[in-house]
């Protein structure tokens, strides 16, 4: 085993950097070539990796080829292969050549743009790319820097949501005084992402003041303004203060859509902050045929979406736009002397974006580079074609299900997420059908030939087929349909 004890002293030597980076790239190219052949989800026993690797780090550095060999032999076989074209679970975490190139530039340059002074071009590129993305997804101008709003790149929607909740809280408490915090109420639906509940807790909203409003099949599992109004009015009558309402465009479980305009009007009437969470479906909004889903976004205070899901941008990358940057920065800004650069420009200061004041952490990567490279490399037309291809494949899968009398589609397929289950054959079969669907999902995943996840709605176990992988082609979706049919037959014998 090669020892390289002094390599840490020259760890950015350009020759070594080029050689070893090339080795990693050919390793990854080989992985992408073969990824389709791996079982999408491994059969990995808990603790299995610990048994294969040393239990202390090496004292002397090893050669990159030795390390890569170990990755291939021990780690890759126990991974769930998110880049497999047959990965249909959760929502995708897209990777692409441009996303990787952008990530390499971001990682290689390794600058830390927490203030504009700390890296002017990185800050400016982030503002430019946020305006680009805002225009692409059809946001109203008020979210663009060019119109007084603005955007920031976070690592995740969860971080973005906490920041908007803090901004909403501080806006309300400036009116109510700090004691008012116990009266603040946050509203979400039973389909909203769990991050809203966590975020509300983190910013000090009492747990008992988080309202989960029920949705039904009749509204496609979207909220109705009436149900929110009823909850809000009951709270107001109890002298509570409506603070924040979440509208989701493309919910995690079912891909449902809340009516943004109706909720926006209600939020305005009650002085609530409206956040539009389009973490997954935000990517589809670049296509004009999907933009009606954010009709009314001009009534929102903030909007977010994740290019790291379905927009060919490697992890991590979340776009957050706000109509009032001041509302965000007044909740999040700090002014330590050690970050104040003594330059004429910083003395001039006003209007300068210091992204540390738009997020929780101080240090931050150069994510703008990654998203900018993706946009430059594929362009709006390329990205629209990419999204539409998945939407088409999802529709094909949905039609195949509908044509086969044994299945039902549970929620309307609005984007590229299909939710389905084997249907009960007669009333009273519900428990048996749930068991059957569980077995179907287990059988599909155990085959290694596809990977899906599940959801439960109205007490029903539902299988989710999220189409959106960078390497997914129609043949993968068709093979997966064959697989689902075969496995349904295999497990179906159990139900009388
Ligand atoms: C609708 C929705 N909101 C929020 C999230 C959380 O996103 P993140 O993992 O970036 O925090 C998800 C994740 O799937 C989601 O689907």
From TrEMBL:
GO terms for molecular function: carboxy-lyase activity; pyridoxal phosphate binding. It holds the Pfam family Pyridoxal_deC. The keyword Kinase does not apply. GO terms for biological process: amino acid metabolic process; carboxylic acid metabolic process. The modification N6-(pyridoxal phosphate)lysine is found at residue 309. Its cofactor is pyridoxal 5'-phosphate. The keyword Lyase applies. Keywords: Decarboxylase, Lyase, Pyridoxal phosphate. GO terms for cellular component: cytoplasm. It comes from the Eukaryota. SUPFAM superfamilies: PLP-dependent transferases. Belongs to the group II decarboxylase family. This is Uncharacterized protein. It comes from Hordeum vulgare subsp. vulgare (Domesticated barley).
């Amino acid at each position: 085993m090669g020892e390289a004890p002094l390599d840490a002293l020259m760890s950015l030597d350009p020759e070594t950097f080029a050689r070893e980076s090339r080795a990693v790239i050919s390793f990854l190219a080989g992985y992408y070539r073969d990824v389709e052949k791996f079982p999408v989800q491994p059969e990995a026993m808990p603790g299995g990796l610990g048994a294969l690797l040393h239990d202390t780090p090496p004292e002397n550095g090893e050669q990159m080829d030795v390390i890569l060999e170990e990755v291939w032999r021990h780690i890759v076989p126990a991974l769930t292969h998110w880049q497999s074209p047959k990965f249909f679970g959760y929502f995708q975490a897209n990777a692409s050549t441009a996303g990787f190139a952008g990530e390499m530039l971001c990682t290689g340059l390794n600058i830390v743009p927490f203030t504009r002074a700390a890296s002017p071009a990185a800050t400016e590129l982030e503002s430019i790319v946020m305006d680009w993305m805002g225009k692409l997804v059809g946001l109203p101008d008020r979210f663009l820097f060019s119109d007084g709003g603005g955007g920031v790149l976070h690592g995740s929607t969860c971080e973005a949501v906490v920041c908007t909740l803090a901004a909403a809280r501080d806006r309300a408490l400036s009116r109510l005084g700090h004691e008012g915090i116990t009266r603040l109420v946050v509203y979400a639906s039973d389909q909203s992402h769990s991050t809203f509940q966590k975020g509300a807790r983190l910013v000090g909203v009492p747990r008992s003041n988080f309202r989960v409003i029920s949705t039904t099949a009749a509204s496609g599992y979207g909220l109705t303004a009436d149900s929110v109004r009823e909850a809000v009015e009951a709270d107001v009558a109890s002298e509570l203060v409506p603070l924040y309402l979440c509208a989701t465009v493309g919910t995690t479980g079912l891909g449902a859509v809340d009516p943004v305009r109706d909720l926006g009007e209600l939020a305005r009437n009650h002085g609530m902050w409206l956040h539009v969470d389009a973490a997954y479906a935000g990517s589809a909004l670049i296509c004009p045929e999907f933009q009606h889903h954010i009709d009314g976004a001009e009534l929102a205070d903030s909007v977010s979406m994740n290019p790291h899901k379905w927009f060919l941008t490697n992890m991590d990358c979340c776009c957050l736009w706000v109509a009032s940057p001041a509302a965000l920065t007044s909740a999040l800004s700090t002014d330590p002397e050690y970050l104040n650069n003594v330059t004429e420009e910083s003395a001039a200061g006003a209007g300068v974006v210091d992204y540390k004041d738009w997020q929780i952490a101080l240090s931050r990567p150069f994510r703008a580079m990654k998203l900018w490279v993706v946009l430059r490399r594929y362009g709006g037309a390329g990205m629209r074609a990419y999204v539409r291809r998945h939407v088409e494949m999802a529709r094909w899968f949905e039609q195949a299900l509908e044509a086969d009398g044994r299945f039902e589609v549970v929620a309307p397929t609005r984007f590229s997420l299909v939710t389905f289950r084997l249907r009960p054959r007669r009333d009273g079969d519900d428990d048996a059908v749930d068991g059957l669907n569980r077995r179907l999902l287990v059988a599909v995943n155990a085959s290694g030939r596809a990977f899906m996840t599940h959801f439960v709605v109205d007490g029903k176990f539902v299988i989710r087929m999220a189409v959106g992988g960078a390497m997914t082609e129609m043949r993968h979706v068709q093979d997966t349909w064959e697989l689902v049919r075969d496995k349904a037959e295999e497990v179906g014998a159990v139900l009388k």
